[in-house]
Every structure is written in structure tokens, then in C-alpha cells.
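Fold these two proteins, one after the other.
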Amino acid sequence: RPDTVSYNNTMDGWACIGDVPKTRALLDRMKVHRTERDVHTYSALIKACVCAGHPEDAERVLVEEMIADNVRPDTVSYSNVMDGWARVGDVEKARSLLERMQSLSIWKNARTYNALIRACVCAGRPEEAQRVLAEEMETDGVRPNTVSYNIAIDGWARVGDIPSARLLLDLMKARGVRRDAHTYNTLIKACVRANQPDVAQRVLDEEMEADGVRPDTLTYTLLGRMKAMGV
């Protein structure tokens, strides 16, 4: 007879492809067979809702279904729902969940704040994204990681603001945060948006090499797209 772990693993498989009905069917089967449900069980269902593009359903699982089943949401549960709202750029919904975590004394980590930063970026609010990174995380004692910076840099890249994107890159270096290909690809993306092909090429030829970062397929795709557009 399958145990909780077996069910959770199978649910997570369906969740990764956003199949909410299949994920929920397994949860219902657990209830029928009186198999214990835990936070991982519901986190899988939340993930399914998020991957399917239904953040409102994900939040309902968090604030209604888990409570009804006497399962306490944790950092991952909240972060997953926040990521759902982030994908549609709903900063207010993402922030309200962060505030709820605060009121319930649930630990917040970089992934939690990364979701809020992404919400700001998807909403076209790069200034707010940078404020979350540079001020709110520090106030909460959470250290931004590479992903945090990459998302915030992308906010500036989307509007072609090379100086602001570069300031965040410089801040990464000053604070000893690892840069990766995605970091530099995002800076190149800013150059593409700002119609600055020479700067983009210099990022590839000089800055990435100096920083020991190997270009990937996306790096060359971005530069190729720029050349194809005649920029």
C-alpha cells in the first residue's frame, strides 16, 4: 500500500507539468485510504496550480484546504503561491502573502523574496524590485543570492536601462555574489533593448571572460538576434 512519500512523489510529477486534476485525484485517494497528508502533499498541489497558471487556486489551497486538513503551511508553501502571483505581476497579492508570513512568524528566505522581486519585474516596476533587493531583504536579514540579482537586473533590462542593470552587477561583485551566464545574458538583453550592439559585444568579449563566466547558447542567441535585426 502506498505511503505518504510515495503519493507525494507521484503528485509532484504531475504538478511539474501543471496537471491539477491528476494531482488532486491523488490527494483525494489519500483521503479515502486515510493516508496521512503533510506539507509536501499540499505543496505539490500548490505547485500544480501555479504551473497551470491558476494562482488564485494555489492560494485557496494554502489558506483554506491546508488549514482544514490541519496541515501547517511552511516557507515553501507560501513561496510557491507567491511565485504564482509573481508570474502574473500581481505585486499586491505577493506582498500580502509576505505580510501574512510575517504575522504568523513563518521564516522567509531568498526564494520568498525572489518571488516578490519577480512580481515587481513582471509588473514593470524595476525600481520597486531593486528596493526589495537592496533594502527589504537586508532589513529582514535575508541575503540576496545570484537569482535575486538576476531577476532584479532583468527588470532594468526590459526597459533597456544599461546603467541601472550594471549598478546591480557591480553590487554583486562588491558583495561577493556569484555571477553566472544568466547574469551577463540579462545585461546583454539590456544592451539589445537599448540598441547598443558594441556594448553587448564587449560584455561577451571582455567582461564575461574577465569574470570567468562561460557564455551559453542564450548568450549567442541574443547577439545573433541583435545582428539579425541590424542593430
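Now the second one:
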Amino acid sequence: MGCCPPARGALASLKMQSNSSNTPQWTRRGALWVCGAAAAAPVADMLQGDVHRDAKGLGLPLQTLTDECEIDACINREKRVFTRAGRKFQLKQEFDKNGSRSTGSAVWEGDVVLTKYMDKDLPQGYWNGKTVLELGAGIGFAGMVAALLGAKDVVLTDGDERVLDLAKRNVEANLKPEEVKKSSLIYERLRWEWAADPSWKYETLGGRPIDVILAADLSYYKDNIPPLITMMRALCGPTTEIFLTHTVRPTDGDSMQQFYKAFEVQKINTGPSFDGHPETFMYRMRAKAGGGSRVDEGAV
């Protein structure tokens, strides 16, 4: 039996199905697209975070699956399962609990790509001894991965206290107490607009420089970008690296160009971490020398 035609994105196009009766076709199962005989498997067997079963015994692997579910189906699940840094994460989500619909209460595509990149695409030992701060940490997925990969200090920040409480519960459920202690993992409420005040200084780490800033899918709303850049600039030292993932949306316009004004930017969309995520990009950045820390919202 042959293979399904290759697909990327949301199957890139629904017209990819072959006309050949000898070629398996993509079949929709709820929020999933599955290939050939695998479509007969129970949906519950396929929904394993970003881990697509090889479906041994189903007669055909799940070929070239893009994402494990559509966004609405993903973020409304109570739990997502991922494997990172040799650990199986079971992450609790509360996106639509009590009607709150906080974006920080779910795992988005940017989180999936960022944590893959952290785990697989950086040199071995990159995270050892690093001081890491995650902006808009949400449930804390990227920060937890940094801790397991060897970060010495991890700060999970978010502007929403409810989201920070969810992050704490996820950390307690997925990391051992000694792992939390080893990475000195802490939680902190941090509002990006605070950095617009020239007198504001980040003092939680006692003046120690931040080696890495993590930011997953925080640029989805273009009006948030100026205060986000201002906060990043305020936190950056001369050697701080920023890893920002962004998923392209119809409303983006040229909003992402703002980052190029404040940072040296390497835009990445190739490698295993991006398989099945053609619309998500990594912006690996360092602050430009002499670029200042504040961004005038009227000037970008």
C-alpha cells in the first residue's frame, strides 16, 4: 500500500488527496487529519500532545501529520501530553474554565515549537548554568523544559495571577521537588507596561544578568508589541539571548518588523522543530547596542 500525499500546514490544501485508488487518502477525524487505515483507530489513541503514534498494527503509519489538532480543539482540552527533555509532561489547561478564556491558560503552537527547539536544536549543554526568564509564561511549559535541561535559575512571569497559579500547579505535577530547587524556580507577576517608566528596574534576581528570555506566541496582538519590546529591552544585558516564537496571522501586517528596530534578529523556520508548523517562526534575538530600553508606541 502506498503513502498519503505529503502535507504541511492545515494540510496546506484540502485538494491534496490522490485520485489513485491505490494511494491512501487523508481522512478527517474530528479535529484530526489521519492517513489511510489509521483513520479507523480510536481518536483517543491519536491525541497524545504532539506525539503522533506510529500506529503499529493499524496497517499504516500516521504519515506526515501536521498538528495533532486544530487550535480550538487543542486549547479547550483539559490536558495535553508532550515529551521534552526526556520527560513526559502532562499539562493541565483551563482556557475556557468559568468563561475566563485567558490565552495563558493553554498550550499554543508557539509553545510547541519553542520547547522542541530548546530540546533538540541547540547545542548540548547550552542551558547549563543559565539564568532564564520566561515572559508571558502561561502554564510554564518552556520554563519547565529549561529547568530540566540544566538552567540554574528559572523565573516564570505572567501578568495574570490566575495563570501563575496554573503554572505552579503544572510545575508541581511535572517536576520533582529537587528539580524545582535545583533550578531555583520562582513565579512572578510582571506587567510589560511597567518598563515604560524610565525609573523601573528589574530587581528580583538581585542584579544578576539574565542569560535567556523565553517568549512563546506573545506577539499575536500587534498593540502588545511595543510594551513587549520595551520590557525585553529593559531586561536585556549585552549578552542576553531572546527566543521568541510567532505564528503568522492574517492581522499581522508588518507588526513583526518592530523587533528588527530594537534587536539583531535571526528568523528561523527550518529544522525538525518546525515540521508540521510552517506558519510558526523563531525569532532569535539580541538587543542592539545603544538601542535604548523604551519603545515609543507612536513611533512604531
